[in-house]
Amino acid sequence: MSHESLLAGVAGGLLWLDRFQLCQVMVSRPIVAAPLVGWIVGDIAAGVASGLLFEFLWLRTPPVGGFIAPDATLAAIATAAVSAGVGSATEIGLGPVVFLSFLFLFPLCFLGKKVDELLRLGLGKLAKRAEESQMRGEDRAVYVYLAAGLTLGFCCAFLVLVPTIEVFTFLLSRMVQAFPPAMCRSLELGFYLVPLLGAADLLVGMDEVRHKVLFLAGLMATVAMGSGLVF
Length: 231
Prior knowledge:
The chain is mostly helical. The chain has one domain. It is built from 9 helices and no strands. Helix 2 (30-41) runs antiparallel to helix 3, helix 4 (72-89) crosses helix 7 and helix 5 crosses helix 8 (181-204). It is globular and about 70 Å long. The two termini are 31 Å apart.
């Protein structure tokens, strides 16, 4: 087990708690979490590129109320760590590596959602016990249940991230070495198509012209920044 996978697992587990358990200050958004993990494992460019792909795709599905959105946080963190690992082991460019990692790790969005659902069921049982303890006047027990809930959430994310990062870093590092140059160019094109698909989805939901103008201006600035990171 590599040092980078453990670091990414620890950082990812802490960031994942921000989704609904702790603080909720938006550090769990892909555009924030993935660059942070990329910086921790030594490749912030891979983190920014990974965060952009997942952020654009899931902007219209925030986890509001009881709705559990696909877990873009886990997928973006894993993609950032895997892209960093593959990039350091090969000479393939950033765009192809990130897009290839994105393709393989995209299903993690839906696996993470299932983990989220199961975790909430477990936390509901802990909350019920905490309430019963408080009614009996056992206030200290409430803090024990709170700590147990946070620990459970961290462990769920950590146990998903570490083996996923290890396995896919190993597999993709060997896979990309056999790719011909034409395949790498196709993957790089795919890297730019994903944000455009997300942008198209957002534009469908925008009714006012000023919203579309502001969004397009932001999109152009983002693409320009992404191009600078790739080239």
